[in-house]
Specification:
Layout: H1 2-15, H2 35-40, H3 66-69, H4 73-84, H5 97-115, H6 126-142, H7 144-150, E1 156-157, E2 164-165, H8 176-185
GO biological process, one term: protein N-linked glycosylation via asparagine
Family: Belongs to the OST3/OST6 family.
Organism: Balearica regulorum gibbericeps
Length: 186
Amino acid sequence: RQANEEYQVLANSWRYSSAFSNKLFFTIVDYDEGADVFQQLNMNSAPTFMHFPPKGKPKRADTFDLQRIGFAAEQLAKWIADRTDVHIRVFRPPNYSGTIALALLVSLVGGLLYLRRNNLEFIYNKTGWAMAALCVVFAMTSGQMWNHIRGPPYAHKNPQNGQVSYIHGSSQAQFVAESHIILLLS
């Protein structure tokens, strides 16, 4: 999901730039819906960013190295400039969700303290703080923070046989369902 967001930022930066031309095109193939395309290109993981030159087949350098470089729109723009001599200036739309969430949290806590201003004994409740700390520890142990950062899918449905996997086959990734299973077991 995060790679797709960065890709969309880059594609929209090119689309709305003054240098826009038909010299460069951006496309997306969904791994679940276009498994045959991934097989044809001998790829077994997503996301993958590829450059297809105007003539000939793509070479090894035409596949973006996500593991080494990352997938920020700025790095993708630099890679595109190296491959095509098309320079894209990345424009990011403003994101106010963090500011709104913080203001909502502060007003909620402030409202709670205002309503309970005559009796603030609950702040000194050790059992309540212990339960809150245990919830945070269990959430972090289960992998919920990893899910929040990486944004993996809940589960994976194999397009060939329709089988649903709740546990990822790799030790370097996980599905949201997998972290829910671990949370229930702990």
